[in-house]
């Protein structure tokens, strides 16, 4: 079997007309915005036109497919919400590929023995600090979080959902019992440069990296930039600069080739050109596929910052904002995806995912697998995000083959 690339292209085009901004060529389907909900309504209408069953759950997840809902299903999909000025494929590819796989399988097998469903998950991009749709499906939501979650502008999740006619507490009813799931498979662009630079078509994802996030404060003394001698300063920025130089050593001594440490946001106070910074506030985000190695990296960062603070006469404080443990994909599905890729003769790499995906929550309740295709130059979350159509076709065919193999197992 082969997917119908023209049909997949048309569905992606039709979805991406919603929320498109011609000025910057970006896509604006922010979670629970009007455009996001318009996209969900469009998808349900498209599913009905194909005589598929469809519904939206209390979290805003849109389901579409065929087969009894009370029987173990194969579930495919990804999100259709975007970051501001997002790209063409991020998330949307996985949801539209799921629709295409269902259509292709129905053409070859009018009576499917296994229920096969797709899902467009809600609010995956984290406007409100989580992956709402996948957390809801996997039963990982709490009433307190639902009531307290808000975005960077102070808009509460409960209010954003209410504006779209949704009751935030209904999201607690969206959990799918594990016995109703046979497997979950997601197709996604890599969002990084590895596959593109290595000229490979498929990424067979072995797991999703764990992530820890700190907010660090290095506190010294603000001084006049002209009168304070260099050897008498308590310069918070020099502490930050020294730590940045330590990152390569920390990974070499405590990490692996899959480790990442990033200083992503920096604020200097008082922030004047003629004032020695008295405080540096910055984020540290560390990642690895092994929770013990993440712990080693975090401890090494702490030791380095403590030593640097003493050297520059600074006070060192930090807050651990979050710690998400690594999530391995199902070894059975990893092997199965690899076998389908080899059978098609596509070039591939077994690899981790440094970015978070719906799969990481679904892996806690069922066998879950994740397939990557290349992003040109590694670009994502931007209007110039793109993937070659030949790679889109390859990824959708591997999704098709994997689902077919699971249904026969």
UniProtKB/TrEMBL annotation:
InterPro entries: Amidase_Cbmase (IPR010158), ArgE/DapE_CS (IPR001261), Bact_exopeptidase_dim_dom (IPR036264), Peptidase_M20 (IPR002933). Zn(2+) 1 binds at residues 79, 90, 188. Pfam families: Peptidase_M20. Its cofactor is Zn(2+). NCBIfam families: hydantase, PRK09290.1-5. GO terms for molecular function: hydrolase activity, acting on carbon-nitrogen (but not peptide) bonds, in linear amidines; metal ion binding. Binds 2 Zn(2+) ions per subunit. The keyword Ribonucleoprotein does not apply. Belongs to the peptidase M20 family. Zn(2+) 2 binds at residues 90, 125, 381. This is Zn-dependent hydrolase. It comes from Pseudidiomarina aestuarii. Keywords: Hydrolase, Metal-binding, Zinc.
């Amino acid at each position: 079997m082969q997917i119908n690339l023209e049909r997949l292209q048309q569905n992606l085009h039709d979805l991406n007309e919603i929320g498109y901004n011609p000025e910057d060529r970006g896509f604006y389907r922010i979670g629970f915005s009007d455009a996001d909900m318009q996209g969900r309504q469009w998808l349900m209408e498209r599913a009905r036109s194909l005589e598929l069953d469809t519904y939206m759950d209390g979290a805003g997840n849109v389901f579409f497919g065929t087969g009894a809902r009370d029987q173990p299903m194969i579930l495919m999909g990804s999100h259709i919400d975007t970051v501001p000025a997002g790209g063409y494929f991020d998330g949307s590819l996985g949801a539209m590929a799921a629709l295409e796989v269902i259509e292709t399988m129905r053409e070859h097998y009018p009576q499917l023995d296994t229920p096969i469903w797709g899902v467009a998950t809600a609010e995956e991009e984290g406007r409100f600090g989580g992956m709402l749709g996948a957390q809801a499906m996997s039963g990982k939501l709490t009433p307190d979080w639902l009531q307290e979650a808000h975005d960077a502008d102070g808009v509460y999740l409960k209010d954003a959902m209410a504006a779209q006619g949704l009751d935030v507490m209904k999201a607690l009813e969206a959990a799918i019992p594990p016995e109703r799931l046979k497997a979950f498979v997601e197709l996604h662009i890599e969002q990084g440069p590895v596959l593109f630079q290595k000229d490979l078509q498929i990424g067979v994802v072995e797991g999703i990296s764990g992530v820890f996030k700190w907010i660090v404060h290095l506190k010294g003394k603000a001084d006049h930039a002209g009168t304070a001698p260099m050897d008498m300063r308590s310069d918070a920025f020099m502490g930050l600069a020294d730590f940045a130089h330590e990152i390569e050593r920390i990974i070499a001594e405590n990490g692996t080739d899959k480790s990442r440490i990033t200083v992503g946001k920096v604020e200097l106070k008082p922030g004047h050109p003629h004032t020695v910074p008295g405080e540096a506030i910055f984020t540290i985000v560390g990642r690895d596929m092994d929770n013990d190695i993440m712990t080693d990296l975090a401890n090494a960062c702490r030791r380095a910052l403590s030593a640097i603070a003493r050297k520059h006469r600074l006070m060192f404080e930090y807050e651990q904002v979050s710690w998400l443990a690594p999530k391995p994909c199902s070894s059975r599905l990893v092997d199965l995806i690899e076998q389908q890729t080899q059978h098609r003769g596509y070039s591939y790499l077994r690899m981790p995912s440094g970015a978070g995906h719906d799969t990481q929550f679904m892996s806690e309740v069922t066998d879950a697998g994740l397939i990557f295709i290349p992003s040109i130059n590694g670009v994502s979350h931007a209007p110039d995000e793109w993937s070659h159509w030949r790679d889109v076709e390859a990824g959708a065919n591997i999704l098709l083959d994997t689902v077919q193999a699971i249904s026969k197992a």
